[in-house]
Amino acid sequence: MRVKLNFFKQDMFFWLLRSYLFHGPRLFVAGWKDGEGQGRGRGGFRDGFRGGFRGGFRDGPKVVYVPPPPPEEESSIFSHYATGINFDKYDDILVDVSGSNPPKAIMTFDEAGLCESLRKNVTKSGYVKPTPVQKHGIPIISAGRDLMACAQTGSGKTAAFLLPILQRLMADGVAASKFSEVQEPEAIIVAPTRELINQIYLEARKFAYGTCVRPVVVYGGINTGYTIREVLKGCNILCGTPGRLLDIIGRGKVGLSKLRYLVLDEADRMLDMGFEPDMRKLVGSPGMPSKEDRQTLMFSATYPEDIQRMAADFLKVDYIFLAVGVVGGACSDVEQTIVQVDQYSKRDQLLELLRSTGNERTMVFVETKRSADFIATFLCQEKLSTTSIHGDREQREREKALSDFRTGQCPVLVATSVAARGLDIEQVQHVVNFDLPSSIDEYVHRIGRTGRCGNIGRAVSFFNPESDTPLARSLVKVLSGAQQEVPKWLEEIAFSAHGTTGFNPRGKVFASTDTRKGGSFKMDEPPQASAPSPAAAADDEEWE
Ligand SMILES: Nc1ncnc2c1ncn2[C@@H]1O[C@H](COP(=O)(O)OP(=O)(O)OP(=O)(O)O)[C@@H](O)[C@H]1O
User: Fold this and answer.
1) Does the pTM of the predicted model rise above 0.80?
2) Taking CB atoms and a 6 Å cutoff, what residues make up the pocket around ligand 1?
């Protein structure tokens, strides 16, 4: 073991030295970022030589990055990928709606009563029939009810909240957006990462195409002056990451008196330890309508029980809980494989795997920003076109990485948790968990980057018993819940980690849904404390 470790250290040392000489310090010192307009824990200069510089350059120089304008041509705005062979199987998923007097589900988009322009945009987006979360979610939102919705990754949650909001705004004839020193949006949508909120904004912009509703997006890492100018041009739907949103409200550029909708996408993440204070600050902002006077909507594929209880603070008492399928369950269109490895063989196994997948688009998840850089550089040196995304990369680089991955120019994307949730990228055939996350919900979100919208995907996870044993039990449950093969060795690890009594890995999993029913999701497992956000646990990942 010791010999192995020394080899590993030597290997790392020379590799680091080589990389430093080839790539210069840029690889290790991620640089200035996010200083402007934040002055908060998650902003500022967070970098490779942590400790050394940390704090010293916190505010950094002014962020000048202005993202390229979104596409203007209709063909790009409405470009979409095809639904997969399992799209129709969504109809077989069991749906549980709880709460008083839930409105009846719709079966078609025609029944949604969308106004003509919105209906046209839905068709141009390639949507023929609604997914279950849309069938149930749209009428619930249209009826003015608060909603906590849970549906598997890639099953259309974004449109489930955007369509009824846009419909209401159009039906009520919101004032066409025009320049004003203070903007009063009707809806605010929050999400945990910059790339995700930008994606939601582009979806909102697509569905609002040709109407007078104007969505705007604000997030960290881009020039604040530019952001403010965009907002002041007119803003009906404000999409933002929490820091930038609070900043822009704090500057008095956004008033909340007309706010009708507050949407928390990836709601469990928005309410866990990392973001909860920001969310409380947001709902406590001057002018924010009370929960009785606004509609609050929450969406995610996972809802730990304690987070669900806390979420009730933000919702009206009679909110509706909608569960499509298994709460916290993995998407069954993803074929999951768990491979037992030791730490030192991971790199070679990854290489072998990627060589066998050819040019298929693959996301490789690692636990820390540093390993993201290491692994990406390693793969590049092995002649695999690879890019990386993590919180220490500048926003310009993050967006470039994502775009290179989307276009297939770099078919391999090495990512930290920052890319685990929500991102909807065409043709991601594989997800590799080079490092398994510490929380099972994070695992569910990561593997959900593939197998979207009825398409088939594959996820391979490296399980190192030395570090991953605490995840074994939940992993067995998620695998069996998604009708996947559970390796015997994993069952044994889960069994011995748990002790000998009462553990039935194939037992009733995720039994109940709505915490108001008093049940626990996982019948034979005590409720877990909300896991510290993977971000916080892992190398202070920077999320927004
Ligand atoms: N009714 C539909 N018909 C065809 N395609 C759809 C439909 N609804 C959504 N889609 C497409 O399915 C893909 C996944 O949708 P979306 O990103 O909203 O999933 P999600 O449930 O929010 O996933 P995640 O949990 O990962 O955030 C998107 O490309 C979206 O445009």
Assistant:
1) yes
2) 80, 83, 126-127, 130-131, 134, 151, 153-159, 301, 422, 424, 448, 452-453
